[in-house]
Design a protein that fits this description.
The chain has 354 residues and is mainly β. It is built from 4 helices and 21 strands. It has a 21-stranded antiparallel sheet. A hairpin with a 2-residue loop joins strand 18 and strand 19. The chain is elongated and about 105 Å long. It starts with a strand and ends with a strand.
């Protein structure tokens, strides 16, 4: 390129270079040789992200746990005092039709289209789009403070809406808010995750949700056929707390409360449903479960040892005052002459494999 110079400094309208296979163009100036101030605009069109990833790994020991394939356009403005000033960098990166394949999952993030705008305060993005497992998503958000990052993220698809606010400090993740809706079920999550021990991260989480039972077949697709046969209907509200390594759910301490005004399964109707579940040191305990059922009450308690290979369990249940003339209306015997009141008790224990 051509560099113009005089006693006041240096300037260039166009410089070209190739850095580790990356073609760039730049223009800028260096003013005041006594106290130099550099201002430069840098452009790299058709930037190969695979080359960038390889350079980050080789030159800066930044090893991303994923493969990145795609092209991008980079625009940078750099302003800095030489030699002691910290550079002020701002600009944007346009990404088109990019693919990210994480090392530890079979499902890549595809067709990524986004503009990432950055300056010394952080990174922002809006109207970014991608596909995951064939489902298109849109996202917007911001990351502020590179030393102790805080992130605000919005993620949306046909069936998902998520708004989250979380931060990183001293290898701890603080989730101030994670609210959303999946199909017609709503959820809210908050808490802390300590990742100082990366092999055994510790979580303290709490949350609520309103679960539409008819959506379970869409959420748990592997069990969709069994759930559909159960004909589940109704909305269940849940509150929970969790402490421990969420990846090892059997070892966690959990408190869970469920409630519903009205639910149905296999065509049978119930109301006033409530359940209290506690889990500690590998022991699962349904402290109480209760439901109003056809003029009567169904109650149950249960325990299970989750740390045993054969999962020993124990259940006690009782049914009081159930009216057969009401129950039969939701069965194939609705036209039969059946009436009466049923009381029943049962205690059962055994093992999951027998």
């Amino acid at each position: 390129g051509r560099i113009n110079f005089d006693n006041s400094g240096l300037s260039s309208d166009k410089l070209s270079a190739n850095i580790s296979g990356i073609a760039i163009e730049a223009k800028g100036s260096l003013k005041n040789f006594q106290s130099p101030l550099l201002n430069a605009d840098i452009i790299s069109s058709n930037l190969d992200l695979a080359i960038v990833q390889a350079m980050l790994k080789e030159k800066m020991q930044i090893n991303l746990a994923a493969s990145i394939l795609g092209k991008a356009n980079l625009r940078l403005n750099i302003e800095t005092s030489i030699p002691s000033g910290a550079p002020k960098i701002k600009g944007y990166l346009d990404i088109a039709n990019t693919l990210i394949k994480p090392d530890k999952t079979a499902y890549p993030v595809e067709k990524i289209i986004a503009r990432l705008e950055f300056d010394p305060s952080g990174i922002t993005w809006s109207e970014a789009a991608f596909e995951f497992m064939g489902i298109p998503y849109e996202t917007s958000g911001a990351l502020v403070d590179f030393k102790s990052p805080a992130v605000k993220l919005k993620l949306e698809s046909r069936y998902l809406l998520l708004n989250s606010d979380f931060s990183f400090k001293e290898r701890k993740i603080k989730i101030a808010k994670c609210d959303g809706e999946y199909f017609n079920s709503k959820f809210s999550l908050a808490g802390d995750i300590d990742i100082n021990d990366s092999a055994n991260p510790s979580s303290r989480l709490n949350g609520t949700s309103d679960i539409e039972l008819s959506n379970l077949k869409d959420i748990f697709k592997k069990s969709a056929e069994k759930i559909a046969k159960a004909k589940l209907r109704g909305k269940v509200s849940a509150e929970f707390t969790l402490e421990g390594n969420a990846a090892k759910i059997k070892d966690c301490a959990i408190r869970l409360g469920l409630s519903s005004r009205s639910i149905s399964a296999y065509g049978l109707e119930g109301s006033g449903f409530s359940l209290e579940y506690n889990q500690s040191e590998g022991l699962a305990d349904i402290v109480s479960a209760r439901m109003d059922l056809y003029g009567g009450i169904l109650e149950a308690t249960a325990k299970m040892n989750l740390k045993s290979d054969n999962l020993p369990w124990w259940i006690a249940a009782s049914m009081q005052g159930v009216k057969l003339e009401e129950l039969k209306r939701d069965t194939a015997m609705k036209d039969k002459n059946i009436a009466g009141t049923v009381q029943a008790q049962a205690k059962v224990n055994g093992f999951s494999n027998n």
